[in-house]
Design goal:
Oligomer: single chain
Distance between the termini: 54 Å
Largest sheet: none
Number of helices: 11
Number of strands: 0
Helix content: over 70%
């Protein structure tokens, strides 16, 4: 009886995943369709739509903007989130719980509410929309993810390891860079990856915060969908899916390689 129950759970799980990922598979499949109209049956295999993307100045410009925005967002969010995590885990100070709740709040508030709130705040300050303000909005939205991931790792790092380093003459800064940071580096890299991916894929907040004439990949797709469903949209969607899936896999491979190299070095020493 128990075996039958688990079999139904497995079947239901498989069906749910098929329902979620079937549209993504269809988009990727239609991106290679030679027909101008995205429909089945597929008439032939072609890379013409990917070639069109490379010669579409608007899409190339949007892709560059998304890469720059994602890179800056991940760098700033990871730096601030790592420092905040160290402060929250290792030190006690007045208002610690309130500050912690404030830093986590953006992840609990619906993104559209956060986007409208920041937009109204900018209007109150009489500040025009700009790339810098768009970057600030992405940092506010991605910072909690970095903070939570790094905090979870830092809690598991024993304090006496750092105290042992300081008892041998290391300063707190040396202890952080030589002991603490290497131990929590996988979490820091994971937080950076999270923030980059979230920033790269974000559309709700970006639509509210971006200045005129600046488009990211998601907003460019949204603008293209207003006119018609072009095969280039399928190709661009396929590129985004492959990019966002390949990036975590590459980062995981690099993290494993670094971890294996460190373990080998420690064994040799």
């Amino acid at each position: 009886m128990m075996t039958t129950g688990w079999s139904w759970i497995r079947i239901a799980t498989i069906l749910v995943y098929l329902f979620l990922f079937a549209p993504v598979a269809v988009v990727i499949l239609l991106a290679f369709n030679a027909n101008q109209f995205g429909s089945f049956p597929i008439e032939g295999f072609s890379l013409r739509w990917f070639n069109s993307l490379l010669h579409n100045d608007a899409i190339v410009r949007a892709f560059k903007t998304s890469l720059l925005l994602g890179a800056l967002t991940s760098a700033i969010s990871t730096t601030i989130g790592t420092m905040a995590a160290v402060a929250m885990v290792r030190y006690d100070f007045p208002g610690k719980k309130a500050i912690s709740s404030l830093l986590i709040a953006p992840i609990l508030i619906p993104e559209v509410v956060l986007a409208v709130a920041l937009l109204l705040f900018l209007q109150f300050l009489a500040l025009p929309k700009s790339f810098g303000l768009l970057l600030m909005g992405h940092v506010v939205f991605t910072l909690p993810f970095v903070l939570l991931v790094v905090q979870a790792r830092l809690v598991s790092i024993r304090r006496d390891v750092e105290e042992a380093a300081m008892s041998l003459g290391a300063t707190p800064i040396q202890t952080f860079f030589e002991i603490t940071l290497p131990l929590m580096l996988p979490a820091v890299m994971a937080g950076m990856l999270f923030s980059f991916t979230i920033s790269f894929d974000d559309i709700t907040g970006t639509l509210f915060w971006k200045p005129g004439g600046v488009e990211t990949v998601p907003t460019q797709i949204f603008a293209m969908l207003r006119n018609s469903i072009s095969p280039e949209i399928n190709a661009l969607g396929a590129v985004m899916v492959i990019f966002t899936v390949a990036l975590p896999l590459i980062a995981t491979g690099i993290a494993r390689h670094v971890s294996a190299a460190r373990m080998k070095a420690k064994t040799q020493n």
